[in-house]
Specification:
With 212 residues, this protein is of the alpha/beta class. It is built from 10 helices and 6 strands; from the N terminus they run E-H-E-H-E-H-E-H-E-H-E-H-H-H-H-H. It is elongated.
């Protein structure tokens, strides 16, 4: 079956995605407008591919993803992300997610992602696939994260991915003061003095690519 559930806010992106899926003969079961609608459709069609934007019910998206996998442990979920830090955060917190799209996705990539995820396999947009590989290889062979707590690693990834203190606090539902506490612990443990030096350290170890 080529069934798909789309959970993207109404607008140009949603219209474009649904148009492309329809043209390539995917059966759109629902363009969900809320959490309950998405879960109800997924309950009826557990094998459908679910494309969900990170901006969909943003304040409770982590909770929604957990609810999806409680309902359907083998859900074919593709998360559409718009920053590396966000993608790393979701991958870190929800390793069961099947696929990731990143920013602007061409038709060929959209179809490929849906096909791969629908077959129960893993997929990531090329940029994210490279980034995930760098972090995976790094964790296997380097000690930059040695001595860091899970939360410190998470915040390290988000800072080096370009998120501000305010954005990190919002995503993790913690105060800016708490984020800064973790930042200063990172600085001390990694022997750097600021976010820029933290980013340089990540570049040095191949975790992110330099931006020119």
């Amino acid at each position: 079956m080529r069934d798909v559930i789309v959970a993207i806010q109404p607008g140009v992106q949603c219209s474009g995605v649904t148009k492309q899926l329809t043209e390539y003969r995917w059966n759109i079961l629902s363009v969900a407008s809320c959490r309950n609608q998405l879960l109800e459709v997924l309950k009826q069609s557990p094998n459908a591919v679910v494309i969900i934007s990170e901006q969909f019910e943003r304040s409770s998206l982590h909770s929604l993803i957990r609810a999806i996998y409680r309902l359907q442990p083998r859900a074919n979920l593709i998360l559409w992300t718009f920053s590396l830090a966000s993608a790393l955060d979701f991958k870190f917190r929800h390793p069961m997610i099947a696929g990731y799209f990143y920013r602007h996705v061409e038709t060929k990539e959209l179809m490929r992602g849906c096909q791969v995820a629908g077959a129960g396999q893993r997929f990531a947009s090329p940029y994210l696939a490279k980034a995930f590989k760098r972090y995976r290889n790094h964790s296997d062979s380097s000690d930059i994260h040695a001595g860091l707590s899970i939360r410190e690693v998470q915040i390290f990834q988000m800072i080096t991915g370009g998120l501000t203190v305010e954005e990190i606090a919002s995503r993790l539902v913690i105060s800016r003061k708490t984020v800064n506490t973790f930042r200063y612990r990172l600085f001390a443990k990694l022997e750097v003095k600021c976010d820029v030096q933290l980013a340089h350290l990540a570049i040095k170890h191949g975790l992110i690519e330099p931006q020119y």
